[in-house]
Amino acid sequence: MSTVTGSKGGDLWFGASLKLQRALVRRVKDPFVQLLLGDGQADRIPYYDRIRAEGPLFNSKATKSWITTSHPLGTEILRDRTLKMSGLDGKPNGQKVNLKIGWDSSFLTKDAPDHTRLRKLAAPAFTPRRIAEYRATVEKLCHQLIDKVETTGAFDLVHDFGAPLPVAVIGQMLGVDAGDHDYFREHGMVIGELIDGVTSLPLARQVRKAIDAYHGLFDAMIEARRTKPSEDLVSSLGKAYDDGVLTHEELLSLCTVLAVTGFETTVHMIGNTVSALLRHPEQWDRLKQDPGLAPKAIEEGLRWDPPTVASTRVPHEDTEFAGQPVKAGEPLTVLLAAANRDPEVYRDPAEFDIVREGEPDHLAFSGGSHFCIGAPLARMEGDVALRVLAERAPGLRITAAPRRRSSAVVNGWRELPVSLR
Ligand code: HEM
Known about the structure:
The chain is α+β, with helices and mostly antiparallel strands. It has one domain (8-419): CATH 1.10.630.10. The chain contains 17 helices and 12 strands. It has helices at 8-15, 18-27, 31-37, 45-53, 71-79, 114-122, 128-149, 157-162, 164-174, 181-191, 201-227, 233-242, 248-279, 281-289, 294-304, 336-339, 375-392, and strands at 57-60, 65-68, 83-84, 154-156, 310-315, 319-321, 324-326, 332-335, 397-398, 403-406, 411-415, 417-419. Strand 6 and strand 7 (324-326) form a beta hairpin. The longest helix has 32 residues, at 248-279. The two termini are 37 Å apart. Bound molecules: protoporphyrin IX containing FE. The site of protoporphyrin IX containing FE (HEM) has 26 residues, from helix 9, helix 13 and helix 17.
C-alpha cells in the first residue's frame, strides 16, 4: 500500500493540467504507465492482459521498474526476504513515478529488524480471541445499520453500511471512546488520502491537520491509560513506549496506520463483493440460500475485485527473476489484482464464482512478512456483513450506476446506491 507522489518528476507531473497529463500519458506506449496514469484507471483488466502478454516479468522502461501479473512469480517476490520495502535511498519503495507513503515510521513501510519489532507489538490485537470479541460488535452494528435504513429502503452501501464497520472495530481495538468515533472516522478518511498520494497543497494541509488531530487524540489516550490501563492496544503500546521498546513517533504512526489501512480497504472489500454479487444474481441467490457461504463469497470478492491492487519491493543487490537481470534499486511491482486472475492458476479467472475449490489463495492481502496483519479482522467483518445482508436484505439491488474510486493502489466504489426492495 503505497502512493503516487514525491520525486521531482512527480511534482512536475502534478503541477501539469489534467489535459496536459492525459496528452503526455497517451504518448507513452508503456502499458504500466497507461495503467497507473491513463485509461487503465477506468478499466484495468485490458492493461493487465497487455502486461501479461509480455511474459511473467515486464520491464517498464518508462518507470524503470519491473512488473508481474504472474501468481507464482508474485508470490515468490513477496516472500523473498532479500527484497526490501525501502529503496536504496531509504525511502519507501524507491519508485520513481509513484509510491511514497506518508506514515514513514509505521511498520508497513519498514524492513526487519524494525518491522519485526513493531509488527509484534500490534499482533496481540488480532488473536482469535480478540477477533471473536470484535465479532459481537460487528454483528450488533450490522443489524443496527439495517434497522436504520429499513423504513426508507434506499441507502448507500459504501457510506451507510460498509464504512461504519471498520471504524467501530478499529476504534474498539485501539480503545477510542465511542463518543469520539465520528471524529476518529472523519480524520481517518482524510489521512486515508495518503494511500493515493497528496496531489494538491490544500489536500496536504488537510492531511497534516488530520494527522495532528490523530496524534492529539492518541497522546491524550496514552496519558489517560497511564493511570487507568485497559485491555486495548493503546494501553499495551503506551506501556511498550514507557518501557523503551518503541519511540513516540513510532507509537503514533502505529496507531495511525492501523486505523487508516483498515478503514478504506475493508469498506471496498464489502462494496466490491456486494456489487459483484448483485451483478451475478445466481451467485447472490446461492448465498441467500446458504448464508454459510459468506466466507467463501468474501474470498472470491477479494480475488475477483480486490481493494488493494499492487505491492512493491526493492532489491538492494543485483538479482534475477524469471530469467531476467534486475539491478539493485529497480522496484518490482506485483499487480495483486492481475495475479488474482492468472489463467495459469485460476480456472476461468474472469468468472465470479463463490464456490471455487482447490485453487491457491488470492494475493489480495499480499504475502510474505508483510502479509496483511488485519486479514483475520477483515475476513470476519466481511463474513458477518454478507450474512446479515443475505438474511435481512434478500431483495437488495443496485439503483444507480456507482462511481469508481481508482488509484495506483486502492480500488473500490466511491458510492454504491442500493435499495432493500
Ligand atoms: C479487505 C481488507 C484489507 C485488505 C485488502 C488489505 C490489504 C493489505 C495489503 C495488500 C497489505 C500488504 C502491503 C504490501 O505487501 O506492500 C496489507 C498490510 C497491512 N494491513 Fe491490510 N488490508 C485489509 C484490512 C486491514 C485491516 C482491517 C487492518 C488493521 C486494522 C490492516 C492493517 C494492515 C497493516 C498494519 C499492514 C502492514 C503489515 C506489515 O507491513 O507487516 N489491513 N494490507
